[in-house]
Design a protein that fits this description.
The complex is a heterodimer. By secondary structure, chain A is of the alpha/beta class. Chain A has helices at residues 6-16, 27-40, 56-59, 117-120, 125-129, 137-145, 371-379, 384-400, 406-422; strands spanning 83-88, 91-92, 105-109, 150-154, 162-167, 174-183, 188-195, 200-209, 214-221, 228-237, 242-250, 254-263, 269-279, 283-292, 298-308, 312-321, 329-338, 344-353, 359-367. In chain A, the strands form two sheets. A ten-stranded mixed sheet of chain A has the order 2-1-5-7-9-11-13-15-17-19, covered by helices on one side. Chain B has a domain at 2-93 and 169-250: Rossmann fold (3-Layer(aba) Sandwich). Chain B is built from ten helices and twelve strands. The longest helix of chain B is centred in the middle third of the chain and has 15 residues, at 97-111. Chain B is globular and about 55 Å long. The two termini of chain B are 30 Å apart. Classes of the chains: A alpha/beta, B alpha/beta. Chains A and B meet through helix 7 and helix 8 of A and helix 2, strand 7 and helix 3 of B.
């Protein structure tokens, strides 16, 4: 007699509905990834890192439909000189994209690139490294079944950033994108991502930054209220390299952003930050795992969420400092501003330290609008609603300050102001 | 300008009466000082007038130029011409001092049906006024009160007052935490605003502030009531003898 095993059933149902792209250089990596998925099974509410976020709609064979949202705001980054690569419902659209050739960077498409040895050495490799000690089955699923994505190799410092634009046009679309990025020694690359992408998006980005390389990542997840997304960023950092990632999330019914970073070379720096604002059935989950495996590295996590009208925020952030990672400087802050009594913030900060000469600090707070500050602003004549908006922006400031480019920062602040204005 | 009649105030959360019948009448252009021992209700009086939550008015009234201010929201009181310089100005990270002030100036103008100030015009005015208070461009750009010293915070309060051009200014222990030079600077800022159409209520513990900002009338508050009113000499008397004599005399 068989015992009911919901995890195995869910996994089997999903895998039955998928077809693995075959042939080509990525096939062995895809087969390995499939083996990983089968061994781990898809996530379940009882899994340690899925207690606060229900994975059912991310596991389901069919993507729950999401109405295409008519975004009335000015397109993001439009004033920015950038190399634009456009995906519609998870499929690369050459007609809307710029020419892929650009000085200082090689760009290929996962779906049709010939064997690129550098990509073959990374595809699914960083993802597989990131499966220990915490399983991330949806990322392995992505590696096995990704249908599109880009392979970007920076050999110098390209003049323009690469901008990945994710358009959503089919309310039933289910996108699986997998990008592989290699920043060569001493090279520097900025990648921007924005847009809702699809009704459901499963995205993996593997980023390998060689010694002295620099990678900057700016992301704005789309405004579509019903969209769902699970994203994973797997990064490996060489010595004296820099990795900085900032994500703005405005709306979306379900977002799970995982970021897994390994500092493998001495003196590397990793900053991950996020600002998320949402209301109603908005559910936003940041799950971060940073491993210090070299000397004198710095890592910084700054996550802020503004929640109202029953919205839920989740933060699970870990700093693991291995025994040889002396002089580690680790910082982690996660904070939620609850604009009413119905919203919830669930936080699980973790530190695991085996080295004896490190400085690691972490904090997590949940609070309402500060009445003293609110009164101060109002006493100067600022009406209550405007004063609250100012205090929301004030609350998000530490995260927004992680954006280095002032033009991008002001673009994203405008998005926040738009959200604030709409909730009046 | 400001007429306070028989004002009774208790804490909202607990059954504690703080003000027990304050009567104060401040004419246009006058400077009144309020002194009194700790816990006498001086700061409560300031907060109740500017509209902070947590207090309940159980009896009495307060009118600013004939308008019942107790019925107004704090922002409406500000637009009607009331300003309180805080004893502990609040730090607001991430909001630039200048952005905040321009938002405040224009919100008040809008509430009064006046034209808003353009960014250029605002910049011109604030630069000139900041200079008098020795507030440099860098301090104007910094987040509101964040990392300001005690003296800088108080100068920033006076700058706000100067920019907002209120009719009734309440200074709540503006001298606390100030060194002699800062006190002179702040006082000069206040004195520059003295005008036939503008009145001041100066709450202080010490007579020395009143050497710089010369009051027309001095009130002593004790246990939630005005127990004595007199001229500037009353402040000197307290400086020399403390409150004990006066309290004994009125009890």
């Amino acid at each position: 007699m068989s015992v009911a095993n919901p995890k195995a059933d869910t996994t089997a149902a999903r895998l039955n509905a998928l077809t693995m792209p075959t042939g080509g250089w990525s096939e062995p990596a895809r087969r390995d990834a499939l083996t990983r998925v089968q061994a781990m099974g898809l996530p379940h509410r009882r899994d340690e890192y899925w207690r606060y976020t229900t994975p059912d709609s991310l596991n389901a064979p069919e993507a729950p439909s999401a109405a295409v949202f008519d975004d009335d705001e000015a397109p993001l980054f439009s004033a920015h000189d950038r190399l634009k690569l456009v995906f519609v419902d998870g499929v690369f659209d050459p007609a809307q994209s710029d020419d892929l050739s650009h000085a200082g960077v090689e760009i290929g498409r996962l779906a049709d690139a010939s064997d690129l040895h550098w990509a073959r050495d990374l595809y699914g490799v960083l993802e597989a490294r990131g499966q220990v000690p915490v399983a991330r089955p949806l990322a392995a699923l992505n590696t096995a079944f990704a249908t599109d994505g880009v392979l970007i190799r920076a050999t110098g410092t390209p003049e323009r950033p690469v901008s990945l634009v994710y358009l959503h046009s089919d309310p039933e679309s289910d996108a699986t994108l997998h990008h592989v990025i290699r920043v060569e020694a001493g090279a520097s690359l900025t990648v921007m991502e924005h847009g809702p992408a699809a009704a459901r998006l499963n995205k993996v980005m593997e980023v390998d930054v060689a010694d002295n390389g620099a990678f900057h990542h700016i992301r704005a997840q789309g405004r579509d209220h019903e969209r769902r997304a699970v994203t994973h960023m797997f990064a490996r950092l060489g010595s004296e390299s820099v990795f900085k990632s900032f994500t703005l999330t405005v709306n979306g019914v379900l977002t799970r952003n995982e970021c897994v970073i390994e500092l493998t070379g001495d003196d590397a720096v990793a900053h991950v930050a996020g600002a998320a604002v949402g209301d109603g059935d908005f559910h936003h989950d940041d799950t971060v795992f940073i491993t210090h495996d070299a000397m004198n590295c710095e890592s910084r996590q700054v996550f802020k969420k503004v929640l109202r009208n029953g919205a839920t925020g989740v933060f699970q952030g870990k700093i693991l400092v291995k025994q040889q990672a002396q002089k580690t400087d680790g910082y982690q802050i996660s904070q939620a501003l609850l604009l009413d009594g119905d919203s919830v913030f669930l936080a699980k900060p973790e530190l695991e330290i085996y080295a004896d000469d490190v400085a690691c600090s972490h904090g997590s707070t949940t609070g309402a609008i500060d009445e003293t500050a609110l009164f101060y602003l109002r006493s100067r004549g600022v009406p209550r609603a405007d004063a609250e908006d100012l205090l929301v922006l004030s609350f998000l400031a530490e995260a927004m300050a992680e954006i280095e480019d002032p033009v991008i920062a002001s673009d994203l602040t405008t998005r926040l102001e738009g959200w604030l204005a709409r909730r009046r | 300008m400001l007429n306070i009649k028989n004002l009774h105030v208790k804490l909202e959360e607990e059954d504690k009466q703080i003000l027990k019948g304050i009567n104060l009448s401040i004419g246009a252009g006058e400077v009144h000082a309020v002194m009194g021992p700790n816990g006498s209700g001086k700061s409560t009086l300031a907060y109740v007038l500017s509209g902070r939550g947590g207090y309940e008015v159980t009896e009495g009234s307060a009118e600013l130029q004939g308008q019942d201010i107790l019925a107004m929201e704090p922002e409406e009181r500000a637009a009607a011409g009331l300003f309180q310089a805080f004893q502990y100005p609040v730090e607001i990270p991430g909001v630039g001092n200048m952005t905040f002030l321009r938002t405040a100036v224009n919100a008040q103008r809008k509430a009064r049906g006046e034209e808003e100030m353009s960014a250029g015009e605002f910049l011109k005015v604030i630069r000139a006024k900041a200079k008098d208070l020795q507030i440099d461009a860098e301090m104007l750009k910094r987040p509101v009160n964040v990392g300001f010293s005690g003296g800088e915070k108080k100068r920033n309060e006076i700058l706000q007052m100067t920019m907002l051009e209120p009719k009734m200014c309440i200074l709540d222990e503006t001298d606390s935490g100030l060194d002699v030079d800062a006190m002179r600077l702040v006082s000069d800022g206040v004195n520059a605003l003295r005008d036939a159409g503008r009145s001041f209520l100066v709450i202080t513990h010490y007579q020395r502030l009143l050497d710089h900002i010369k009051p027309d009338v001095v009130h002593i508050i004790a246990d939630g009531r005005v127990v004595k009113t007199g001229g500037p000499e009353l402040a000197l008397e307290i400086e020399h003898n403390g409150y004990a004599d006066i309290l004994a005399e009125v009890s």
